[in-house]
Specification:
The chain is α/β, with parallel strands linked by helices. Bound molecules: adenosine-5'-triphosphate. The site of adenosine-5'-triphosphate has 11 residues, from strand 2 and helix 1. It is found in: Cell membrane.
């Protein structure tokens, strides 16, 4: 990872009339990693990303993309940043592959177009005009256009929305390859499994602010719902076990011989519990670590009610 953040957002505010879409948002996106921006509908993700892309102007706050101002330095950023928009941004009458070839020619060192077309399963629609492509094909073409110029940084707004499982997989593979090549990827998604699979870091946005950041593992480890369970002889000395556990941990025997330790789970905790069992001469049977999924974390953070 690079030391300087690839994207740095501080105190960002954006209003649409009386509606405050982004409300003092702070976010640092590290270089050379995949960052997933998650949030309920209307949280302000697209607005934030579009400000970073230079398509919208903020009402307050500062935004730096690769150290530059997305509006004032747009010309410098254009060849370095790839953008996949949620909807089109493409001339509907243009032929798919011609458009991609045209975009490739605007860059100094583009990807191989036929290879990219093949990878994203666009081979059969080379001469088809954009408006006649299926929704999923349009989506894949938009992704190809965003990456064909070998950008240093790429913004992908819901890249797999509406894609079939094969296309989704191809998209994931492409994102992994970008990451391997050192490209910074910022992706918004509503698919928690996608964020879990792809992202080095996650930022959860709600009501126009970032309310949590961390790696998917860090976020899933946090909170009381991570637990370690094991079976053993009934009536173990739980007070003794509690003494060796970190502050804030709890232990219980919800059913005779069935034990539950609640604490942030890490390798040290596992070692502490199994070490204590070894000293007590207890074999911890069916030892399992129960972790919250990213979806659990997301719902805990943003609430379970449908937003209007
Ligand atoms: P989604 O997950 O549904 O794509 P989002 O997190 O990307 O949502 P935004 O599209 O940034 O959210 O929208 C944030 C808020 O700003 C919403 O309440 C939306 O209705 C409002 N909004 C967005 N664009 C405009 C606009 N051009 N004019 C007026 N209101 C807008």
């Amino acid at each position: 990872m690079q030391k300087q953040p690839a994207v740095s957002v501080a105190g960002l505010v954006k209003r649409y009339g009386a509606k405050t879409a982004v409300d003092g948002l702070d976010l640092e996106i590290p270089g050379g990693a995949v960052t997933a921006v998650l949030g309920p509908n209307g949280a302000g993700k697209t607005t934030t990303i579009e400000i970073c892309e230079g398509y919208r102007r903020p009402d307050a706050g500062t935004v730096r993309v690769l150290g530059l101002d997305p509006v004032a330095d747009a010309a410098q950023l254009k060849p370095r940043v790839g953008v996949m928009l949620q909807s089109g941004g493409v001339y509907a009458g243009a032929r798919a592959v011609e458009m991609l070839q045209h975009t490739a020619k605007l860059h100094a060192n583009p990807l191989d177009v036929p290879e990219l077309v093949e990878r994203l399963g666009l081979g059969s629609c080379g001469r088809t005009t954009y408006r006649r492509l299926s929704g999923g094909q349009q989506q894949r073409l938009a992704l190809a256009m965003a990456v064909v110029g070998r950008p240093e940084l790429v913004f992908l707004d819901e890249p797999t929305a509406g894609l079939d499982p094969q296309a989704r997989r191809a998209t994931w593979e492409l994102v992994r390859d970008l990451r391997r090549d050192g490209v910074t990827v910022v992706v918004t998604t509503h698919h928690m499994d996608e964020a879990e699979q792809l992202a080095d870091r996650v930022a959860v946005v709600d009501r126009g602010r970032v309310i949590a950041t961390g790696s998917p593992e860090e976020l899933c480890r946090s909170g009381a719902e991570s637990s370690l369970r094991f079976d053993g002889p009934p009536g173990l000395d739980l007070g003794g076990l509690l003494k060796v556990l970190p502050d804030g941990a709890s232990v219980a025997e919800p059913a005779p011989g069935s034990y539950r330790v609640e604490a942030p789970i890490d390798p040290q905790l596992l070692a502490t519990v199994t070490g204590w069992c070894a000293q007590a001469g207890v074999m911890p049977d069916r030892l399992t670590v129960q972790r919250r999924s990213l979806e659990d974390v997301f719902l805990d953070l943003t609430g379970r009610d449908l937003r209007s």
